[in-house]
Write the structure tokens for this entry.
Amino acid sequence: MKLLRKIFDKVEPVFDKGKPLAAFYPIYSMFDNMMFLTSEKSQNAPFGRDPIEIKRYMFFVIIALGPCFLGALYFYGIRVLWMLIVSYAAGAVVEIAFAIIRKEEVNEGFLVSGFIFPLILPPGIPLWLVAVGMIFGILVGKEVFGGTGRNLFNPALVGRCFLALGYPSAMAGSWISPGTGTLGNLLTNYQLAAPEAISSATPLVQAKSGVLAPLKDLFFGNVLGSAGETSAILVILGGILLIAVGMANWRTVLSIILSFAGFNLLFNLFSPGTANPVLFNMLSGGFLFGAFFMATDPVTSPITISAKWPYGVLIGLLALLIRTFSGFVEGMMFAILLGNIFAPLFDEVVIRVRMKRYAKKQ
């Protein structure tokens, strides 16, 4: 690593201001930040000792997503890896282009968005749609707001929403059967072309007809669904790790789950059969994945601790309402995007209330 550091230091002047390659400094900076910790250090006290920076945050989130990704490889084959590569390539193109235009460093935000995006897509989706969705998500969901840290919406969800509304037939017809046995589908579905889709419906679609998949299949992932969302146990394991290392706030996750389950019980109490059974609803679709990995996004979720509770309650309620009463069987995607809209409002209310309390004490 010392030799590599010396090489980077010798190459850096080529990208200095006024040099021919100055416009491409963001690309050099991106690789420098990926390989090494920041070289900026405090010379005098006080010294900051918080180890959590954006690179480490992204690293921990990707580690937590590991069980879901490995499960996707097992259930749906190596093609999931191609989806990840295409997602990263498309996201990197947009990020680097805007970094060069703005003459800024490349942010690492797309590392998480690019990793999450293929996991929330049907495993048989054409690769060109993966690229289109990722480009749209990064461009419209983040860059138009100013880039990483300024976006109002979760970029991966914006891309997924765009594909769901713009290419409904392709999305609905891209489900493939999960592999079982020792190696699952690891030795199949490795081609670049989209595999032949099957006509069977996902558990949430079947539930509209009154057919409920066994809870065991939902728990372990033996059902149709998005690449990284079908196995509830893998999502829960990754989500617990994310909370344990402090990358996700447990208040957001708990309030979403309690709200979703509580209103689900109330609906079925006062109008039996209105909604699916609670456990089925919680284990199916992208509910748990969204609660752990996307609703907890620190940029698009509330900043204040108190605001995380109403934010989670709103998402849980909206997800249930959309699933139960709309034509969309999966409501978590839209619920989180709507929650993103209200997040700044919740923060403002909390801050105003606290400022009034503080003023009264003076």
